[in-house]
Amino acid sequence: MRVTLTVIKADIGSIGGHIKPGERLKSKVRDFIEEQGRKLVRDYFMSSTGDDIAILLTHDRGQGDSDIHKLAWDAFKAGTALAKEMGLYGAGQDMLKDAFSGNVRGLGPAVAELEFDERPNEPFLFFAADKTDPGAYNLPLYLGFLDPMYCSGLMLSPKMSKGFRFDIMDVAYTQGDRVVSLNAPEDTYDIAALLRDNERFVVERIHSRSSGENAVSVSTTRLHNIAGKYTGKDDPVMLVRVQGEFPATGEVLAPFAKGHHVAGFMRGSHVGPLMPVKQNESISFFDGPPVVSCAAFCVHEGKLTESADAFDHPFWDYVRDDVSRKAIDIRSQGFSGPAMLPFSELEYGGVVEKLKDIDKRFKVRA
Length: 366
What we know:
The protein is of the alpha+beta class.
């Protein structure tokens, strides 16, 4: 059976600042999908990560379908109305436009989609991150799909021996989606050279070179460049097919034990370690740390199994303790050096205006 997975995420209001959306708001969005989506979708799942709500939909209408995207858009608009009524912080924050225009790309919400013919068993992972940007997935995807130190299937599985193709977007290019396709293992060094810069070159999709099947979709966009003002760090979602000709679930999850440093934290303007958290976890320390959740599913004839919380295991408690120590350590450095993002990433922040004023006061000595 041909099936499409669509996940659309938005921050439409939160309790006490950037903490969490709350059950009443989530119920409003869920009820809208339940009532209005019956004729459009085969199944759905909804969760929150930090202050973001994500809607995962299964259907047979293909990627970029206007009706599917409008369903999610309208659900978030209904939620925004309730958030304003409740007086929640940042009500409708990710709804950057007033009107829907065919799909949600460029309108504020993040979207990732995969379309494929179901295998006899079709496992996949749904990742959602908050207080960070799509580049946060660069290193885990590099390690999970390209490095045999993490993905032993590259050595052990004949189905994976040809490697994978990485589609990488230059998110700093403002005139359109500028993308390059590079093959692993031949282009490994070129892929590494790009992916080291999380704020400019970001993985958009990964394909199996054996079959051409799409394995990964990331909600990579030029959002903060499109909007023309600071709009947060995009808080990305990602879909990853696993097992068989793709890396095993554990191979995809393993790199997240690093707690690698990414952009995010308070006002999206700092650097901090990415913490793997349980489903529906809130935000706390310094509006962070940057967090990522993962729900595992199988899909059969368009219907989802119950979810398995991939980061709800004693092993990840140890990782969370380690990430907490790393977060405290880098925050102790305050605004200095690599603890805060460079000026190029603070383009829409108040510090830029401050620097313009100070610049006028400089004098060149004779």
